[in-house]
Design goal:
The chain contains 13 helices and ten strands. It is α/β, with parallel strands linked by helices. Strand 5, helix 6 and strand 6 form a beta-alpha-beta unit. Helix 5 runs antiparallel to helix 13.
């Protein structure tokens, strides 16, 4: 894939983000989402910190709404230095590091606290995966950007147990998620988020799989009347920076960036989970919200227990190390 950064920058110049200054070192950031989105605001917060701590010597120039690169292009664009930094769906790195798909393993994280511990900067899982991403792509992971947790959508009948998935066509957004659907007895259909509304409206699939935030932002409550809070997997993005660029900075500036990354990572995760809870409460007036009982959850866990081994068989030694590291937490 060839990147034409100069022409992309020229095309974007008329809508350059206000997140920029006359700093000595400007970090150009590509983002597929609008600056007003939580991930965009996360970069704004990062910029404010590094500007203050560096006395204006460091700054971010944000190019939102895929002005420079689409989400799938980000790993290579950042890894090759076509742009200094960016955000991408974690699943975009599975081509280079299949083990990153561990976050999609069903019920792998016992609860929210376990998830938070596993994905935190410096955790055993992060150390393994972040190192692998850097080694394979040339992009250094600065922080993980929480996007929410997985839920299921349905019409007519609520999804409560694996039996309710059996023989149903289910929208998915990743390979491991497809394996989960198969383990539940359903038929996975890989589909981008933007196509969900029409697919549900037209009955192209029977069951939806998405994040709670998308139920509101994409108005999916208009075409689906049940939302099951399975929270069986995590939806994560990553903020990455070209490693050669990062290493070219002074030790002081590198530390400022790393410290800011830790701060904004926690800020975003707290905000996303609080927002997720608020959206679920709001949706209760628009659709039926189903919370699994302990017994129902146990049925899901048992039905999908074989997915982890399938993942290890497919993704190899790194996947096995990650599973061991997280299971021991």
């Amino acid at each position: 894939m060839k990147f034409h950064l100069k022409s992309a920058l020229a095309a974007a110049a008329i809508v350059v983000s206000p997140v920029m200054t006359q700093a000595d070192t400007v970090i150009r950031v590509t983002l597929q989402l609008p600056e007003t989105h939580s991930l965009g605001q996360n970069w704004v917060a990062f910029n404010e910190i590094i500007q203050e701590k560096s006395g204006g010597e460091l700054s971010v120039q944000l190019f939102p709404s895929a002005q420079l690169f689409t989400d799938k292009e980000v790993p290579e664009a950042v890894g090759t230095g076509a742009v200094e930094a960016g955000s991408a769906f974690l699943g975009r790195f599975t081509g280079a590091v299949p083990a990153v798909d561990v976050v999609n393993l069903p019920f792998f994280f016992r609860d929210e606290n376990h998830l938070r511990s596993a994905v935190a900067t410096g955790s055993p899982m992060r150390n393994i995966l972040d190192t692998a991403v850097l080694r394979e792509t040339g992009a250094r992971v600065l922080w993980w950007q929480a996007f929410g947790r997985n839920v299921y959508l349905s019409n007519g009948e609520a999804i409560r147990t694996p039996a309710d998935i059996r023989d149903q066509k289910v929208r998915t957004y990743g390979k491991v998620l497809g394996w989960t659907v198969e383990a539940l007895g359903g038929a996975p259909t890989l589909m981008s988020g933007s196509k969900q509304f029409l697919a549900y409206q037209q009955g192209a699939v029977d069951v939806g799989m998405t994040g709670a935030s998308a139920v509101k932002s994409r108005n999916l409550f208009e075409v689906m009347d049940h939302m099951t809070l399975s929270y069986d997997s995590a939806i994560e993005f990553v903020a990455v920076i070209n490693n050669d660029f990062f290493e070219s900075l002074s030790a002081e500036h590198r530390q400022i960036i790393l410290d800011a990354a830790v701060t904004v990572e926690q800020q975003l995760r707290d905000a996303i989970y609080a927002e997720e809870d608020a959206i679920v409460d709001e949706m209760r007036s628009r659709m039926t919200v189903v919370e699994l009982t302990d017994d129902e959850r146990r049925q899901w866990v048992e039905a999908t227990s074989g997915v982890a081994q399938r993942f290890v068989d497919d993704a190899g030694e790194t996947a096995a190390k990650v599973i061991s590291a997280v299971s021991g937490m």
